[in-house]
Amino acid sequence: MKIEYFKEYSHNLGKDMEFKVFGHAGKPCIFFPTQNGRFFDYEDRGLIYTIRDYIEDGRIQVFCVDSVDIDSWSSNKPARWALETHEAYYRYIIEELVPRIYDINTYGNGGGVASGVMVYGCSMGAFHAMNFFLRRPDVFDAILAISGIYHSSFFIKNYADDLTFLNSAVDQLKHMSPDHHYIDLYKKSRIIVCVGGGAYEEEFISEAKQLEAEMKKLGIDAFFDYWGFDYTHDWPSWHLETLKLLDYILD
Prior knowledge:
The longest helix is centred in the middle third of the chain and has 30 residues. The mean pLDDT is 95.
């Protein structure tokens, strides 16, 4: 498996950001880490090696990125300050990382340009993946979200403004007009949302069902996959769920 490490300065965040690339070609996919996570977590937890066949076969090229959760969603700073820190991260992903992804992926694919970027995440990584997908379906055309929260109020309580709304998937969909131009882009995308039925998944099941209801109202064709009681909110379940569902989303 081809593995590359990058450490590059982000003008939006004002600091170096690290990311790691797994694979030589295939569908480019951003892996967002779990809460307060780092770019090396999916590798350290073994998930990269669980899906190594997809990577080595050139079906997917994985870009594991850093988060800034500890300075934003997990911060004890004033809510607006925390949200503006996240928005700087949003701009980093869109304006700085995505162009780098296209550069790296195009080179690996022999000059062929990918139609779009896929996003993936477990737990809070799913929160990020869904928000980025909904905000920029012109950039992201596929998503696999596992055991996610889809309301920003879960992380920042007793506060609401334009930025909490922009990063709250259920609220965005609930207030989206059926003729919004993003709807057609969502309908052309591949959307898979998965959650287990076991320990610590109760709230995440509720979140998935709310998201499913809002997507159905808008006619968005998404696959919501509810697993059994023996699949918990933890890494062993995420390994199995990811391994099975990648076949559907990369087909």
